[in-house]
Design goal:
36 helices
C-alpha cells in the first residue's frame, strides 16, 4: 500500500501538472515580493525627497556700471569670464572633515595651477623668498584689522587680554594657528609651506561665508577652458566645486588712470557693516561675496555703479538639483559714470612727465663718485648708484641668482655675495660681542649702515626695542642718537632699563631669560640668525659690493638680459661680458634714454612727478596725472599678493598719488597771493617800486633773495613776479605784519595773507572725489611765508585749484572729476553742474597787475628760455622749494593758457626736480599737445626728453 502511494506521488511529481503548479507558485511569490519591495522603496524615496527637498534663494548681482572719459572713451568695462567657486557641502561632524575638505581644496589648486591659471589671493600673508611667512599689508592698522578678523574678535582692542597678547602675532604664528587643530587642521606632511598658505587662504575665505547658506567662495577667476574642463572631469571628487560665469572688471590703459579709478574687490567686513547700515530694504543688503569699489572713483561712486540685485527662489533636492523655480526677479545694471577727464590728454601728460624725468636722469648720471654739498644747484648721480638700484629696487630678482637655471653671470654675482655676506655677518657678531665698543661715529659708512639697519629692524619692524618705553631725556639714549656709543652698549643699557621686549625672544627658543647677560646673548643670537635670510639686509650688502666695484656695472647690465628685463641682444651682451667698464656706463645711459629702463625703476632723484589740468570755467579736471603708476587690473576683483608686495617694496612709491597726496612748500608760486594781499590792503600799488638789496635784514636770521649776491634792482609787483624777486615779497610780508603800534607782528601778517589764500581756494581741499591730503597754511614767520616758505604745504591738486581761480579772475570752483551719470539705457541721471564756492572780490587793477606779472614770467622772466618762440600765449609762475639741503629742490610750475582768453589752467610738480626750467618744459609740452592733439602718437612713442632750459635756482 505504502509502495503504491509512493509511486503515485512520484508519478505526480513527474507530471506536467506539478511543474505548472511549481512555476505558478514561484511567479506568484516573485510578484508578491516585488510589489511589497517597490512599495517600500517608493515610500522611502518620497520620504527622503520630502525631507531633503529645501527652499533656496539665490541672489544674483547686477552688472556694474561702466566708467568713461568726457568723450565717451571707455576706461572701466566688464568682461564675461569663467570663475571657479567652492561651497562647503561636507558634513562638519564627520570624523575626517578637515582632512577631506583640505584634500578637495588641494586637488582643486593643483588642477587650476596645472592649467596655467592662478588662485585669487587677497590674503594678507605671503611666503617670502627666504621661506618665511610675512604680512603683505604695510600699515599697522591694516595688520591689526587682519588679526582681528583671523582671531574672530569684534574689535582690535579685544586682541589683547590678560590671558594672551594677539596683537603682536607674527605671520608665522598666524599660520601656525590656522593650520592647527583649532582651525583648519592642515597638518598633512605632503603639504609644503606654500601649499598650506594656499589651502589656509581658501579655508579662511570659506569660513567667512559659513554663516550664510548658499554663498559660494571664489577660488580663481578668469580661468581657461582647460581648467573648466578639468574641473568638470573631476566633479565627483571635487565636492562643492563649481564653474560659474561672472563679469570681471577690466581697466583700459590702466597705468594712466589707476590712481583715479581705483579698483574693485570682495567686500570687507568693515565695508559690509558700513554699507548695510544705510540700506533700507533687506533685498538691497550687501552680502559677503559682493564685489564693491575699494578705492578711487570705484569706491566714491559705489552707489551709482553697483547694480540692483536679482534673485531666484526655488526648491532643490539633496544634491542641489533645481526641482522648481517659484519666484524670480532679474538683476539690474548699474549706472554709467562719465568723468571730466580727457583720456588722450591724460595719456599725453603722463608720457610727457615720464619722458622729462628720463631726460633729467640722463643728463645727471656721471661716471665718477659724487659727494653732495649743501645748497648745491645740481647734484649729479654716480652711475654705480644706478647699477645698485637694479638690485635694491627689485628690478632684478635676487632669488633667481642661486636657482638651478641661473646663468653663469648670475652664479658669479651670487658667489661674490655669499662670500661678502659671511664676512659681514662675522663682523656684525664681532661688533655685538667684542669688548672693543667702537662708537658708531668711528665706524666706516658701510658698517654704520649695517648696524643702523639692525637697530631700526629691532625697533620699528620687530618692536623688540620698545620705543614707547624709552626716556628721550636719558643720557645714554642721547649718546646713542649722537653716535657716541656702540650698538652693543646701547642694547645692554636698554635691557637694564626694560626697553627690550624680551618676550619676542622667548618665541625663538621657548626659553625664558632672567639676567641681562642671558637676554643679551639671546638677542645677539636672534639678530645673527635672522640676518642670514633677511632680503633687505642682503640688499645693503649688494649695494656696497656694487658701490666698491666688486660687482661690476657690466655684470649688473648682463643681469638685465639674464632675467629678461631687456630683450636679449647678443652683441651688447658680449660687449658687456668682455669687461669694458666704459661700455657699461654708456649702455645704461642709452637704456634710460630709450626708456627701456624707466625713472621709476631707477628710483633716484627725480623719479616721480604729477600734473593737473583744469577747465577754468567749471572746475572740471581734464587731467590728473601721477608718475609712476601701477596696473589696477592686477588688484581688481582679487589682489595679486605678489604684485601688491612688489608695489609696496618699490622705492618709487607707485601706489602713492603724487597729485593729491604729496605736499610740498609751494615756493614762489605762492607770491601771487602775497601780491594780491599787498595790493588790496594798500601796502603797495601796481607801480610801487621796492629795491632789492639782496639780503633782507629787518628780521633775524636774515633771508636772502635767490639772486644774491646779485640783485634785481628796483622793481614793481609785476616785475617782481616776473623775476621772482624774494626781497620784494619779504618786504611786503614784513609791512603786512606791522601793527598799529609800529611793531612787527608775524601773526598779523599771516592772518592778512590767509584771508586771500582762503578766498583763492588754496587752503581748502580741492573738491576732487578721491583721497587728498589736507592743505597746510603756514603758521611760521610771515616774511618767509610770503614767498611760499614757512610751513606752507600744499598738494598739486590744491595749487591747481588756486591757479584756476587766478586764471578766471576770482571764481573759486570746487574741482571735480565727474561730468555726468547715465543709466544703462543711456538716459541722463545727473549732470554735474559747476560748484562755485565763492567769488574773490578784488579790483581790476590788482588782477591786471598779477596777470601781467605772470605773463612776463614767460616773456622776459624766469621761464623765458623755455617759452622762447612758443606760438601759444601762456602765463605762469615758477617755484622751487627746499626740503633737504643734501637733496635737490622741488620744482613747481603753475600756469594758464591762452593768456588773453584763458581756457585751461595747470600745476606741475617734480619732487627733487632741481630746476623750475624742467617743470616749465612740461607745461610747454602739455599746452602744445592740448592745442595740437594730432601729436599724441608721437608723444606715446617718444623717448627721454633731455632738458634744454638749463638750471634755474629760483
Amino acid at each position: 500500500m505504502v509502495k503504491d502511494i509512493l509511486e503515485s506521488i512520484l508519478n505526480f511529481l513527474k507530471s506536467r501538472a506539478f511543474v505548472m503548479l511549481v512555476l505558478f507558485s514561484i511567479m506568484f511569490s516573485v510578484l508578491i515580493y516585488r510589489a511589497f519591495y517597490l512599495q517600500i522603496v517608493k515610500s522611502d524615496y518620497y520620504l527622503e525627497n520630502y525631507i531633503q527637498k529645501a527652499e533656496r534663494t539665490v541672489t544674483t548681482s547686477g552688472t556694474r556700471g561702466l566708467i568713461y572719459d568726457r568723450n565717451g572713451i571707455p576706461l572701466a568695462t566688464n568682461q564675461l569670464v569663467y570663475s571657479v567657486t567652492i561651497e562647503d557641502e561636507l558634513n562638519t561632524r564627520q570624523k575626517d572633515y578637515d582632512k577631506n575638505l583640505n584634500n578637495i581644496i588641494y586637488k582643486l589648486i593643483q588642477i587650476i595651477e596645472k592649467n596655467g591659471d592662478t588662485l585669487n589671493n587677497d590674503f594678507s600673508i605671503i611666503l617670502e623668498g627666504n621661506g618665511n611667512y610675512a604680512f603683505s599689508v604695510t600699515s599697522d592698522i591694516a595688520r591689526l584689522r587682519f588679526l582681528r578678523d583671523i582671531y574672530g574678535k569684534k574689535s582690535i582692542e579685544e586682541l589683547d587680554s590678560d590671558d594672551e597678547i594677539l596683537s603682536d602675532s607674527t605671520a608665522e604664528e598666524v599660520m601656525e594657528y590656522l593650520c592647527g587643530k583649532k582651525r583648519f587642521n592642515i597638518d598633512d606632511e605632503k603639504y609644503t609651506k606654500l601649499d598650506k598658505l594656499k589651502i589656509a587662504t581658501i579655508r579662511y575665505n570659506l569660513s567667512l561665508n559659513s554663516f550664510q547658506k548658499y554663498i559660494t567662495t571664489e577660488v580663481a577667476s578668469n580661468v581657461s577652458d582647460k581648467t573648466v574642463a578639468a574641473v568638470y572631469e573631476n566633479k565627483a571628487e571635487l565636492i562643492g566645486v563649481n564653474v560659474t560665469e561672472k563679469t570681471k572688471r577690466v581697466y583700459t590703459d590702466s597705468t594712466y588712470f589707476s590712481h583715479i579709478l581705483g579698483y574693485t574687490g570682495t567686500i570687507s567686513e568693515d565695508q559690509l557693516a558700513e554699507f548695510n547700515a544705510d540700506v533700507d530694504k533687506k533685498e538691497d543688503e550687501y552680502i559677503s561675496s559682493d564685489v564693491v569699489g575699494k578705492s578711487g572713483i570705484e569706491q566714491y561712486m559705489e552707489d551709482s555703479l553697483q547694480g540692483t540685485k536679482g534673485y531666484q527662489k526655488m526648491f532643490v533636492d539633496s544634491t542641489g538639483n533645481i526641482l522648481e523655480i517659484t519666484e524670480e526677479n532679474e538683476s539690474g545694471a548699474g549706472d554709467d559714470v562719465y568723468l571730466s577727464l580727457d583720456a588722450n590728454l591724460q595719456k599725453a601728460a603722463y608720457n610727457i612727465l615720464a619722458q622729462k624725468l628720463a631726460g633729467i636722469l640722463y643728463s645727471k648720471i656721471v661716471n665718477y663718485e659724487v659727494h653732495p654739498t649743501e645748497d648745491a644747484k645740481t647734484i649729479p648721480i654716480y652711475v654705480r648708484d644706478v647699477y645698485a638700484q637694479m638690485i635694491c629696487n627689485n628690478v632684478v630678482d635676487l632669488n633667481k641668482f642661486n636657482n638651478a637655471e641661473a646663468s653663469p653671470n648670475e652664479q658669479r654675482v651670487y658667489g661674490k655675495f655669499t662670500s661678502k655676506q659671511a664676512q659681514v655677518l662675522s663682523e656684525v657678531q664681532s661688533f655685538l660681542t667684542s669688548e672693543d665698543n667702537t662708537p658708531m661715529s668711528a665706524l666706516s659708512e658701510e658698517n654704520k649702515t649695517y648696524l643702523t639697519y639692525i637697530y631700526e629692524k629691532l625697533s620699528i619692524i620687530e618692536q623688540i626695542i620698545d620705543t614707547s618705553s624709552i626716556n628721550k631725556e636719558d643720557e645714554m639714549y642721547k649718546k646713542w642718537n649722537k653716535e657716541s656709543i656702540s650698538l652693543k652698549e646701547f642694547l645692554l643699557y636698554a635691557i637694564s632699563q626694560n626697553w627690550i621686549n624680551s618676550s619676542v625672544l622667548y618665541k625663538d627658543t621657548e626659553q625664558k631669560y632672567s639676567s641681562t647677560d642671558e637676554i643679551y646673548t639671546a638677542l645677539v643670537a636672534h639678530i645673527c640668525n635672522n640676518l642670514q635670510d633677511d632680503t633687505d639686509f642682503s640688499k645693503k650688502i649688494y649695494y656696497y659690493l656694487v658701490k666698491r666695484g666688486t660687482i661690476s656695472g657690466n655684470e649688473i647690465c648682463m643681469l638685465l638680459y639674464d632675467q629678461g628685463i631687456l630683450e636679449y641682444d647678443e652683441g651688447n651682451y658680449n660687449q658687456l661680458a668682455s669687461g669694458n667698464t666704459g661700455f657699461a656706463y654708456n649702455f645704461m645711459l642709452q637704456q634710460i634714454k630709450d626708456m627701456k629702463i624707466t625713472p621709476a625703476q631707477v628710483a633716484l632723484d627725480p623719479c616721480s612727478a604729477s600734473a593737473v589740468v583744469t577747465d577754468i570755467h567749471s572746475g572740471q579736471v581734464l587731467a590728473l596725472v601721477t608718475y609712476p603708476s601701477y596696473d589696477n587690473n592686477k588688484l581688481s576683483g582679487s589682489v595679486d599678493a605678489e604684485y601688491w608686495s612688489k608695489l609696496n617694496d618699490d622705492m618709487s612709491l607707485p601706489l602713492y598719488n603724487r597729485a593729491t597726496q604729496t605736499r610740498t612748500a609751494p615756493g614762489s608760486t605762492f607770491k601771487m597771493i602775497t601780491a594780491i594781499t599787498g595790493l588790496e590792503t594798500g601796502i603797495i600799488s601796481p607801480g610801487t617800486p621796492i629795491h632789492d638789496y639782496g639780503q633782507f635784514t629787518k628780521i633775524t636770521p636774515s633771508p636772502k633773495c635767490w639772486k644774491f649776491p646779485s640783485s634785481h634792482g628796483s622793481v614793481n609787483v609785476s616785475q617782481a613776479l616776473a623775476g621772482s624777486c624774494n626781497y620784494f615779497f619779504y618786504e611786503v610780508g614784513y609791512e603786512l605784519s606791522i601793527d598799529s603800534n609800529g611793531s612787527f607782528n608775524s601773526g598779523l601778517g599771516l592772518s592778512k595773507i590767509k584771508k586771500y589764500a582762503d578766498e583763492l581756494g588754496i587752503t581748502s581741499l580741492s573738491g576732487v572725489e578721491i583721497d587728498e591730503n589736507e592743505p597746510l597754511y603756514s603758521t611760521d614767520n610771515s616774511v618767509r611765508s610770503a614767498i611760499g616758505q614757512g610751513s606752507n604745504s600744499y598738494s598739486d591738486i590744491q595749487l591747481a585749484r588756486y591757479v584756476t581761480t587766478l586764471a578766471n579772475r576770482g571764481n573759486n570752483y570746487q574741482l571735480t572729476l565727474l561730468n555726468k551719470i547715465l543709466n544703462a539705457e543711456g538716459e541722463s541721471v545727473k549732470l554735474m553742474e559747476p560748484n562755485l564756492t565763492n567769488t574773490v572780490d578784488i579790483s581790476n587793477s590788482t588782477w591786471n597787475a598779477v596777470h601781467s606779472g605772470m605773463r612776463q614770467v614767460i616773456t622776459s622772466g624766469t621761464a623765458q628760455n623755455t617759452f622762447k618762440n612758443f606760438d601759444i600765449e601762456v602765463a605762469g609762475k615758477t617755484g622751487t622749494a627746499q626740503e633737504n639741503k643734501l637733496r635737490s629742490n622741488h620744482s613747481v610750475f603753475v600756469a594758464y593758457a591762452p593768456y588773453t582768453n584763458p581756457e585751461i589752467a595747470m600745476s606741475i610738480l617734480i619732487p627733487n626736480g632741481e630746476s623750475t626750467g624742467y617743470t616749465a618744459e612740461v607745461v610747454r609740452d602739455i599746452v602744445s599737445y592740448y592745442y595740437n592733439p594730432s601729436t599724441l602718437d608721437q608723444i606715446l612713442g617718444g623717448t627721454a626728453s633731455v632738458p634744454t632750459s638749463g638750471i634755474s635756482s629760483e
